[in-house]
Amino acid sequence: MNAYRIKGKGRVDQRKPVRFSFNGTAYTGYEGDTLASALLANGVHLVGRSFKYHRPRGILSAGSEEPNALVGTDRGNGRFEPNTRATVLEVFEGLNTTSQNHWPSLKRDVGAINDALYMLFSAGFYYKTFMWPKSFWNKVYEPFIRGAAGLGKSPTVPDPDTYASRFAHCDVLVVGAGPAGLAAALEAGRSGAKVMLCDEQAELGGSLLSETNARIDGASGWDWLKAAAAELAALPNVTVLTRATAIGYYHQNLLGLCQRLTDHLASPPEGAPRERLWKVRAKQVVLAQGAIEKPLVFDGNDRPGVMLAGAARSYLNRYGVKVGNRPVVVTSHDSAWLAAYDLAEAGAKVAAIVDVRPEVAGHLKQRAAALGIEMLTGWTATGTSGRLRVASVRVNPISRNGVFGPARTIACDALLMSGGWTPSVHLFSHTKGKLDWNEEGQMFLPGERTEESRCAGAGNGSFGLAAALAEGAEAGADAAVDAGFKAKAATYKVDGEVPLMGVSSRELTTDRNASKAKAFVDFQNDVTAKDIRLAVREGFKSIEHIKRYTTNGMATDQGKTSNINGLVIASDAVRRPAPAVGLTTFRPPYTPTTFGAFAGYNRSELFEVTRKTPIDVWAEENGAVFEPVSLWRRAWYFPKPGEDMHAAVTRECKTVRETLGMFDASTLGKIEIVGPDAAEFLNRMYTNAWSKLGVGRCRYGVLLGEDGFIRDDGVIGRITSDRFHVTTTTGGAARVLAMMEDYLQTEWPDLKVWLTSITEQWAVIALQGPNARKLFEPLVEGIDLSEEGFPHMSVAEGRIYGVPTRLFRMSFTGERGYEINVPARYGRAVWEKLFEAGQQFGITPYGTETMHVLRAEKGYIIVGQDTDGTLTPEDAGLGWAIGKSKPDFVGKRSLSRPDMLKADRKQLVGLLTSDPNTVLEAGAQIVLDPNQTLPMKMVGHVTSSYWSGTLGRSIALAVVEGGRAREGATIHVPMPGRTHTARIVGTVFYDPENKRLSA
Amino acid sequence: MLVIRCPYCEAERPEVEFAYGGEAHIARPADPSTLTDEQWKDHLFIRTNARGTHFERWRHVHGCGRFFNAVRDTVSDKFVTTYKAGLPRPTEAELEGMRK
Ligand SMILES: [Zn+2]
């Protein structure tokens, strides 16, 4: 159909039709169209309903600032995206789109009742309306808010697209490829500097794409653009990125660019990423972001068909689309007159130009008169009509002393407005650059910069083509010079440009009751001028507070079309100048950005590293169920056919206690501490004394923070007099090494000690159980494994199966135990050999769950589970591990602070439930009196809780205030459903005499 | 993301290579047992929390591994200088020269 398309006009390719759908209706556009231009070409203005009042809304703008025309896009196979701006969405063959915020249909919407209930939803409605009565909250308000919350529908399946990311470095990054940005990039590019030029649109040109009058150096704007683009493309040192939005400007000239790669393609190449996030570090930055037109604020300024005059001009000149056959222009700025001329010349009947200024320049009037357009200067718009599309505008003359003349109603099918232009200072503002208020232009301009950046063109308040080219060229040349290149700005000769002036208006005055006017400021969040005045009346004076109370500027468009209008209305109401009321802070991203772009490659299995031990593959092949432990995946248990977790763990525990089990302990952190002062260093770091630890012996060590609380623990073996093999918890390995490095480098740099992480150099196989020694005694060379030669807590170097080993005799199960360290690459081979040899003893591999149960039966703590960063060694029952005679160690001074000595500190105890079959929940709270009134006084919590097959009952560890003195007492554990009782006991449930360590 | 100069590598590197290490020039007392509870509390917990010039520690953890000191403006996030651990803190006059 394309009834509103002008044949041969614009930059779209009218030989290449593209079929797409909107709300199930098929339409045709052309290659180069946006959804907005294609819909307008088909006469469609109504594209959505507003968020709060469900008012019919149309297309306001022609760019990324669009607040109204948000649609859902479906590109098939789960590729659904809500809130895509129709004004930037490029149409392609087969594109399916839907409007938002309505039910059951766009034209007949039930939620529009909200519009009639206007009083309910005025400023602060979130804070006021839903406060009362309390009983309404669950049944009425919350479902209502949840139903109304959010724009558009969320996608329902995981995003099937892939997203790329890339770092880049350049000398000069130019943001925006309008005339200023192009001139800057040309200058910097010619200097030989490495230049990147990015623009959010599909093609370069910015405002030039909509400009048909002016000539640059004798060529038409479009011919100049073509030549400029060709020159940039030919420069090998220049990278041009289109469809690339600069979303954020961060410290030291780091900018994020989101480049859309495939959204505009009907059939994207297989495997091509949808978007690419560029992180560009530039020596110099030129910001040429342009300006955004301001809407006028008057009653009914939000009807479909009411749009920005500059946008109407873009649709005509760039896309060849007349936005109406009978438009009316209402303006306070000259630029809207150009839209009227262009439309009239394209065959539209421009019914009137209504200009609120009493006088305008003579040349404007002459041209309008020549085109037969009626001019109403000194008139204002006071209302509109038309349900789903504007049908008329009500206008009144205002005398010089403000008296309203009688109203006139002018029929129209489009109403084009302009309240002047707002420089886009968003990225400059991201750098905390100061913004200066320009009273004459009623705008904020970039002031003192904080980064190596320059602003040029309309974004710097330098409006007009000639000014943009001149300032852009200068900025590009200066940036190149500051980056170390030679450059001198070229000059451009611009003809055919008329100077454009305007006044910035507040809300347009009206002869009717202003408090009944629906004069919208923020279209996306449905904020009216009246809401802002109400907020000020209710006491809000700062723009940051007014913004939050009214939600003005808080929608996904970040107030691109509403901030300045909101500010000047607030400033009038507060009776303070605009800069004193302030501009809200802009924050990245400049435009809504997909989560996919931010996530990039970091998703699914690449989201986080999964560390695997050398034995992991064996565990997987042998049916292990895994659990994540810090970044590692560890075998959790090894179920046999038909076994559930409980059965498997009970069997594994029983086998270890009765004969033999093997456990992959490779994930334990391992640090080698070497040097003549190694023992002294350990003395200072750990609570225990190390000087007297003999070579070939090992000891359990406790590491505190300087605050006296347990940070880590592990067994430390002395390999030679100057070499220690330190083990840490699995999760604490990196932290402990960093802490040791900190003390070594910055507190005791005089100590001759070297620290090396050896976690991944050694695979560790724990052999635990009464038959452990029998199994491998014949396999080990070079170590006397006799009871006297290698008692509990020994370490020695030798060979097993011919492979070098560091063999520890230690136990985390309470049974006779050995930990066989072998070089990582032999880990799996030695494991498999031992498993094979162990069959004669009925050996079982066991996982972390069995390890946990066995250690809990012995009362061995796990740092981070039974401790939480507030437990001292004394609290945890590890007072014996403190070297009392040592003058100092990390954390020692804190242990004598008064709070550390209190009797009611939480202490680690054992719990036995009254019902032996009840397994308490780890984390459950403990109270002394279950009948006290709520909220109860909690005296501690369960830290570990398991079913102990060995004991035939449940066991638990807990921290309880003054717990050790309460041994024998009954405590209570309130749980959903019932309250359990338990008796406080010691922490060692099994073999308290430690006889089995040598059994 | 900041760019930070490691005084040991003598090179500027992105922030991801570094770890922050809290306020600088807070030496652990030679013999903590001689400190009163109040003094020990101050040593452990009380920090400058500067608005503006801040002396702080960083570690080039994914590079040379060394701890070093830096002067950063906490308002602008700009580094004035970085220097090796153990060196005295630059004077205000020296810093003023570096800011220019
Ligand atoms: Zn370094």
From TrEMBL, chain A:
Keywords, sorted A to Z: Oxidoreductase
Among InterPro entries, the record links this protein to: 2Fe-2S-bd_N, BFD-like_2Fe2S-bd_dom_sf, FAD/NAD-bd_sf, FAD/NAD-binding_dom, GcvT/YgfZ/DmdA, GcvT/YgfZ_C, GcvT_C, GCVT_N
Q: Aminomethyltransferase C-terminal domain location, by residue?
A: 906-991
Q: Name one GO molecular function term.
A: sarcosine oxidase activity
Q: Which GO terms describe its biological process?
A: tetrahydrofolate metabolic process
Methyltransferase: present as a keyword of the record?
no
Looking at the record, the residues that make up the GCVT N-terminal domain are: 618-886
Q: Name one Pfam family in it.
A: Fer2_4
Q: What is this protein called?
A: Sarcosine oxidase subunit alpha
SoxA A3 domain: from which residue to which, for each copy?
Answer: 517-600
Q: In this protein, which residues make up the domain named FAD/NAD(P)-binding?
A: 171-442
Q: Into which family does the record put it? A: Belongs to the GcvT family.
Automatic annotation (TrEMBL), chain B:
Which domain of life, per UniProt? Bacteria
Q: Name one GO molecular function term.
A: sarcosine oxidase activity
GO BP terms, alphabetized: tetrahydrofolate metabolic process
Alphabetized InterPro entries for the sequence: SoxD (IPR006279), SoxD_sf (IPR038561)
- UniProt name for this protein: Sarcosine oxidase subunit delta
